[in-house]
Amino acid sequence: MYLSTVIRTVPDFPKPGILFRDITPLLNEPAAFRAALDGLAALVRGVPCDRLAALESRGFLFAAPLARQWGKGLVAMRKPGKLPADTVAESYALEYGTATLEVHRDAIAPGERVLIVDDLLATGGTAAAAAALVRRLGGSVAGHLFLVELEGLGGASAWPATPCFRLSNFGSTAGCRFRPSPVQRNGLARRDRSDPIRLQALERTGYPSSSAG
Prior knowledge:
alpha/beta; 6-stranded mixed β-sheet; two-stranded antiparallel ribbon; 5 helices; 10 strands; 22% helix
């Protein structure tokens, strides 16, 4: 089974001209979802962090299981008006509009290392806003973790000095297949990108206990 068989491309959503990458088929297939989580965990083995920040809304689906396994706190970064207590907000540009991200002011303590998790990296605006919120609260960004990066949009260029981990790349046109791309900056290894990822090769018996030390 290839990742490309469990991520669906939907044209003209949410706006005309946008090719939307739909991960709901992956979530609906237990073996695929498990393998994706295991693959994400393997990418950040040994990356020290104190908390995981999950970006609304699909980032919650991947960050929460990892935070539970590693015994780390989970920070919810949400759309405006969704968090009940005192918040800090950061606005950013999307590939098809603008948006704002909020986090509780007491969610991150000064000096804490935060791993930012989302399902997809496109232009990088959401992740850059999340990183700005972490730093405004006195934390540091341990890295960014994504299931998929959309090629050709330059998402990670917004934070060249911060480690960025992607399980796979997806081409900018419908029908492109996934290629391995856990690019690990700051001296970490770069995996060969020549062949499609098979989900079976990523399956493990639980997430690495040393991850996010």
